[in-house]
Amino acid sequence: MTSRALSQADATAREDRSADELHELIAQLDLSDIQKRFLSARWLDQLRWSARAARRAARWYYGLRLVTVIGGILVPALVTLHVAGEPLTDGLAVTVSWLTFVLSLLVAIAASLESLFRFGDRYRHYRQAAEWLKMEGWRFMQLADRYGGDSATHRAAYPLFAARVEAAIGQEVDAFVSQVLPEAQPRKDGAR
């Protein structure tokens, strides 16, 4: 198994442990069964999905950026090697020419894919969504901030939490569609 596969397996294992711990915490809250199911099925599921989407987008973003940066450095060096200095043997000149050509194609493809799919924007978007959900969940579970008070209970705070989570998910979808998607498709009525 490669180190990359091990780190991905590590991240998945950590996420699974964290989800198991959160399921245990949810089970201990003084909430109705349906409210506990909401926390698991809606809040926790959305949190896990956003975290996975952020990791996936980050891998694509950094992988494509790495190809662009390293290739962007190597192509001019290869061109200089080919043009200046000692004359290259015919076989070496052909190899350097093809290597320069292939690397320049890879750089162009990587830069184009990142520009088209906007993996950096996606990564930041999903990471922000995951962190907001995580913070809001912890505030709710600890009855902190807006969920707290002298006689605060999870049952009393639940409607506010559910409303805030749903509003945040709606805003996240709106932000993704308007800011992160590559090119908005024109609506049928011609408006954007």
How would you sum up this structure in a few lines?
This protein is mainly α. It has helices spanning 3-28, 33-83, 90-117, 119-141, 154-180.
What does it look like?
The structure is a single chain. The chain is mainly α. It has one domain. The chain has helices at 3-28, 33-83, 90-117, 119-141, 154-180. Helix 2 runs antiparallel to helix 4 and helix 4 packs antiparallel against helix 5 (154-180). The relative contact order is 0.10.
Shape type:
elongated
By DSSP (H or I, 4+ residues per run), the number of helices equals 5
What percent of residues are in strands? under 5%
Major sheet description: none
- Using the CA coordinates, give the radius of gyration: 25 Å
Characteristic terms for this protein:
192 residues, 0% strand
List the helices and strands and how they pair.
Elements: H1 3-28, H2 33-83, H3 90-117, H4 119-141, H5 154-180
Helix pairs in contact: 1-2, 2-3, 2-4, 2-5, 4-5
